[in-house]
Amino acid sequence: MLIVEELDVNYGGLEILKNINLKIEKREIVALIGANGAGKTTLLNTISGFVKPKNGKIYFEGLDITRLLPHEIVEIGIAHVPEGRRIFPELTVIDNLILGAFPRRARRFVDENLKFVFFLFPRLEERKKQIAKTLSGGEQQMLSIGRGLMSAPKILLLDEISLGLAPVIINSLYKALKIIREKGIAILFVEQNVRKSLEEADRAYILEGGKIVLSDSCHNLKNHHKVKELYFGV
Amino acid sequence: MMDWSVIIMGIMLGGLYALIALGLSLVFGVMKLINVAHGDLIIFATYLSYAFLTYLKLDPIISLVVIAPLMFFLGLMLYLYFFAKTSSEMPEAPLIIAFGISLILQNYHQILWSPMSRGLTTSYSLYSLVFKSIYIPLSYLLNFVVAIVIMLLLHIFLTRTYLGRAIRAASQDLKAAHLMGINTQKVFAFAFAIAMVIAAIAGIFLGLTFPFNPQSGVAFLIIAFGVVIIGGLGSMIGTFLGGVILGLAQTLGGYFLGSASQMLVVYLMVLLILAFKPQGFFGIK
Asked: Contact at 8 Å (CB) between A78 and A155?
């Protein structure tokens, strides 16, 4: 459903991404792995329209979305949960969630999606009247993901959802991703923890210096000599 | 014995001041733009109403039916074609443009209406209510009631509607607002247009209360800044109370020190608050 074709992205005269090819099917959970500065966040930002590529195309359900603006990309069903959560700090939890349903397409499903978000993250329902900045880090991450789901997406882009969180919370977030997938939503996530990524995803792309150096099913990647050498220190 | 009408008039005058400051506060709170043309845009609406009253014998409050949509449209155009276009080029540009608009309006008013002082004089603008020894001009009472109604409406709009929430979201995190599918330029244009409608309403009630001339915009801009400094930016209750405190300072200052020095008390208070509590009484951060 999402196809990235021969994508080159330059930023301030530097080549950040080179010849990226990537494909995600319905219900898939795909990980994007790489060191800091490998271009993972830039790739997500390019898909969601914040960064315009120099060359290459991005297709979503057969539609060329390369030149669409960020708010138009949300409208067609791509939700991006950004790095650092970026919740609206002065708004209540419920207002944050309702804003997630701003795209016209999503407004019809507000009640249904709200129910789903509260089913996934009951903590948010308990705290729905609270001002968002008073939530804990884990709750803010839940809110950020929940807000993304409110736009009734077909694909969810997640950027570093486990940053700075306790392992128990990280596990519960990834458990939630499995339930989200059951709704037919595809997931592309960026994660620094390679072991965790390979456990949670179906497939993974490994980025290095702006290029995809490896891509395969997580099962195969776990046993790949290069992955073992580079990331597991074997 | 203290004359109670002074206190009541001060509070009611505060309503008008809050109304004058509300648009300035909204525009700054949402798009971080200090609209120094705000006072002149208010006076622009006052003169429009004056024209309707003089040539068509149209009541100023009824003329809002035409002036409010006109100001809304003007706000959209100003934002989309001047502020939005230039803010991407350099961050200072919108401020300079606002200065330009201010100068153009002042001179346009001067040419069209002469520097003479004028007023929106209607059958009720000079009418006063009398309860025992308390005496309140009807226009002051109107200011107060209208200010409360407008603030309630704005509050409901900002907290209950999609567009209102989008305006608040875009003011807190622009990128995240984009990610929600919000067209932030459109939302900002709309917020600016709403501020212009509030300016139009403020302009008409100002004209019913005070005489005005082509330079009045500057004086009322300073009052708007004073309200915002006292109340703190970005807080509706703060703006309202800031207006009331300013109004009281002016009428009490006038009562005790004579009307020549009534504004002195106001400016001194603003100065003291800037020195000791620069975030205002209710401001965020």
From this structure: yes
